[in-house]
Design goal:
Elements lengths: L1 E4 L3 H7 L7 E4 L6 E4 L6 H17 L5 H8 L3 H8 L5 H4 L8 H16 L6 H14 L10 H8 L13 H6 L2 H17 L7 E10 L27 E9 L8 E5 L11 H7 L4 E5 L6 H15 L8 E5 L8 H9 L2 E5 L5 H4 L1 H19 L8 H19 L2 H10 L8 H4 L32 H12 L7 H37 L19 H13 L9 H18 L11 H7 L5
Parallel strand pairs: 4-8, 6-7, 8-9
Antiparallel strand pairs: 1-3, 2-3, 4-5, 5-6
Length: about 600
């Protein structure tokens, strides 16, 4: 929404009354400036801004009431009334609101605190918390259906927006102290071992389905609301280990297929393997996930040889605290080869893992676009694996680009070292606070003619009743009653919050019960399969297709004996039943009399 006002942007900035203006633009032809408001601002809000600007100019002696009214397009009578003490309509009718301004400000502060704690409330939760405050003051009537909308219009500090799910463990561990400790540790090792940027790398693994697809925006008929696209039925899991350096160099990827062994028919022809996949590493596991043996092989056969420094320099590898990265063999191998391991804080990879933030999201988006055209084709497991390799080869060149890798190091503040990239991010640093839950609403109580005031509205009601037939109360009395009402509102809001926190802490204590643990079974350590072995297996699979088994003389004799046993069993007086255990079942079914 824009409002054309000549030469006003400078006045708004100089008087400090234009905080609600989003930005302004000037017409090159007329010199007029357009002030742009956020979409949620109504015309009433804009009109009030103009009135405040006009009053400021009048009070500073810059113009008269009439000239200010003409300049800002507001009635002169309104300006005159405001200068003589009248209030804006919204403020003048605050006594008609269910919650007082003090209580609503308390609700606003609660909403902001909950968002910082990773528990941004929904509309219904805000209504429930407001009703809990009212219940402390004796008001047990439900709020109106549109109260939340009017509440949001009255308070520009909060608004409705989309939320993203975050695991509870990430919320609890994403603290300022955890991030600060990580960056201090990172800076210490870089300085202590004089590690140069070229020797700093980050490794991470990500998983996907072989033919993973997703829904998105498409173009179709204007007569229907949505279009349906086919998704693949293949859910076989594949894990990919990727690593990048500060200089944007990508190390050889490691592909972990689901299976009991690698099969030659899974891979493309020899010409493609020798050109596009020569430096790739392939392995397998029963689940398709990486494990401690695969991680150790990756360290020995990918990272150490491909990042060999010049001379006797130290290297630094940043990785998460996955169990496969914290085994004794893994850490000892790294230390003996002068590799300093720096682990990311637990459950903070959504902000500190640079490959997650700047690489994998783009890579998976490209991958899903590439597999979308193949999703409708039913294929064997071998063909799906070959398609996966083709799609990942093409899309990883775009996702794992040098630009994205360098951007990831910069955005996470790892290099150049800048902790403020994360510490100043309000979505990264979450404060763990007690969650106020709505208390139970007490049952309604009968009200007599005179009652003990529980909130500011009760005091105003008493004042009006006492003032009937009498002269208006003095200014001192009104001020005293107003302060008493404000104190009651603040106390009611505080009591509602404290009761909710006690309820939450009680549930928190009950939830802390011992949990069992399971240790991952270790397997024998193997080397990565060489590309030459894969090529040989591929050629062998093509030379020896599956053929129909020929019957031998021994097979024919066994079939003949089985037929004689069955015939003897079904004939009266036959003793073949002793030789054929199936006969008992046949008689049980009533097929043999």
């Amino acid at each position: 929404m824009g409002l054309l006002i000549p030469k006003m942007a400078a006045e708004i900035r100089s008087h400090g009354n234009g905080e609600n203006f989003r930005n302004c633009s000037e017409s090159p032809r007329t010199g007029h400036q357009t002030l742009h408001y956020p979409a949620k601002f109504s015309m009433a809000t804009i009109r009030e801004e103009l009135i405040q600007l006009a009053i400021t100019n009048i009070q500073q002696g810059l113009c008269s009431i009439r000239s200010a009214a003409e300049k800002y397009s507001v009635p002169s009578s309104t300006l005159s009334d405001r200068l003589h003490g009248s209030q804006p309509q919204r403020q003048a009718k605050t006594h008609n609101q269910r919650l007082s301004p003090v209580q609503e400000e308390f609700v606003v502060d609660w909403c902001l605190n909950e968002e910082k704690s990773g528990r941004a409330p929904s509309r219904s939760q805000v209504v429930g918390f407001a009703q809990a405050i009212l219940a402390e003051g004796g008001d047990r009537q439900p709020l109106g259906a549109r109260w939340i909308d009017r509440f949001l219009r009255r308070h520009n500090a909060v608004k409705t927006k989309k939320s993203a799910l975050l695991e509870s463990s990430r919320t609890k561990d994403s603290t300022r102290e955890a991030y600060q400790a990580f960056y201090r540790r990172l800076e210490f090792h870089i300085r202590d071992k004089n590690i140069i940027p070229a020797n700093i790398a980050n490794v991470d693994e990500h998983g996907m389905q072989e033919m993973e697809t997703t829904a998105g925006t498409v173009i179709g008929s204007s007569l229907t609301r949505r279009a349906y696209t086919t998704s693949s039925d293949t859910t076989t899991w594949v894990t990919v280990i990727e690593c990048g350096t500060v200089e944007g160099v990508r190390l050889s990827p490691t592909i972990v297929f689901t299976g009991a062994s690698l099969q030659g028919q899974w891979f493309p022809p020899k010409a493609e393997l020798e050109v596009d996949f020569l430096d790739w590493k392939f392995d397998y596991s029963l689940t398709g996930w990486s494990n401690s043996q695969i991680a150790l092989k990756w360290l020995k056969e990918v990272y150490l040889p491909q990042t060999q420094p010049q001379g006797d320099e130290w290297r630094l590898l940043i990785l998460d605290e996955h169990s496969s990265h914290t085994t004794g063999d893994f850490m000892a191998t790294a230390w003996l080869n002068k590799v300093q391991l720096v682990y990311l804080p637990a459950h903070t990879s959504h902000k500190t893992q640079l490959l997650d933030r700047s690489v994998f999201s783009a890579l998976k988006s490209y991958f899903r676009q590439a597999t979308k055209a193949l999703a409708s084709f039913t294929a064997s497991a071998a063909i799906n694996k070959r398609r996966f390799l083709h799609c990942y080869r093409d899309t990883s060149k775009l996702g794992m680009s040098a630009r994205n890798i360098i951007s990831g190091f910069r955005n996470t503040g790892i290099w150049p070292l800048d902790p403020s990239k994360v510490l100043d991010d309000p979505e990264a640093v979450l404060e763990s606070q007690a969650l106020p839950v709505r208390p139970k609403t007490p049952p309604p109580e009968p009200r007599t003619e005179f009652w003990t005031p529980q909130k500011s509205q009760d005091i105003r009601t008493h004042q009006q009743g006492v003032s009937e037939g009498m002269e208006a109360s003095g200014r001192l009395t009104r001020t005293l009653l107003a302060k008493a009402g404000k104190a009651l509102d603040a106390k009611n809001a505080e009591m509602a919050s404290l009761k909710a926190q006690v309820d939450h802490l009680t549930k928190e204590l009950e939830s802390h019960e011992p949990q069992g643990r399971k240790r991952v079974k270790e397997n024998a350590n193997d080397k990565f399969t060489r590309i030459e072995d894969i090529i040989q297996a591929k050629e062998d699979s093509m030379k020896s297709p599956k053929k129909k088994k020929k019957k031998t003389q021994q097979d024919s004799q066994e079939v003949k004996e089985a037929e004689e046993i069955i015939v003897d069993a079904v004939e009266p007086g036959g003793d073949g039943g002793a030789k054929c255990p199936i006969v008992g079942c046949v008689r049980l079914w009533g097929l043999v009399v």
